[in-house]
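Why show two proteins at once? Because comparison is the fastest way to build intuition. When a single record is shown, students tend to memorize it. When two are placed side by side, the eye starts asking what differs. So, the first record is below.
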Amino acid sequence: MNHERAIHRLRERRKFRVRKRFRGNAERPRLSVFRSHKHIYAQVIDDQIHKTLVSASTCESGSSYGGNVAAASAVGKTIAERSLKAGIKQVCFDRGPFKYHGRVAAVAEAAREAGLSL
């Protein structure tokens, strides 16, 4: 089996295992985090209507590199501010196939500090 294909299959299994525990709804949407090598992205999603309510990423800031913990903290703070402005106070945190460690944890901690309830 192709090595990249096996890794992709394992990531998909982890993602489904994490997401089957909860679904985002109107009172508590899902805060989904995706990290790449260069950037980190966060979205608040309502799964009942299949819409992204609020989003933030390191691409918006105009910096060429956003793959560090400081940039992830900035994204967490931004997503929390935008969520609170949109009237969203509570979210379910969806780490996807990523460990709750490093940049993913930094997004969650910064969102909590900015007033969002995870």
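Second record. Ask yourself what differs from the first in the token line.
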Amino acid sequence: MNKIFIICSVREAEEDYKCKLESYKAELESKGYQVHLPHIDTNQEAKGIDICRENANAIFNANEVHIFYSPKSTGTHFDMGVAFGFGKRIKVIENVEFGEGKSYPRMLMEWELQQ
């Protein structure tokens, strides 16, 4: 079974954002994917380091990582580094506009194009 990990904001996430993510998860699951969505599938009551380990394990076991990028989310940056380190295929679902020069949004575009 194909497994997908969704990288997204969790701590500062508003209800409408969470609903959008849950709808995306449901859409993928209806197509037969197994989807890990952190605000639902990761124990958010655990210590920070345990949350990071749980997410890293889920990223390691995923076939692909889908990213809803937010420059404000430090957890997103951490999970992106884990996915990059494991050499995961990514699909950027949401990104922010970027200009000239180096940036995470540009890196995501480059990473996705080099797969």
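One difference worth noting in the second protein: The first strand starts at residue 3 and ends at 7.
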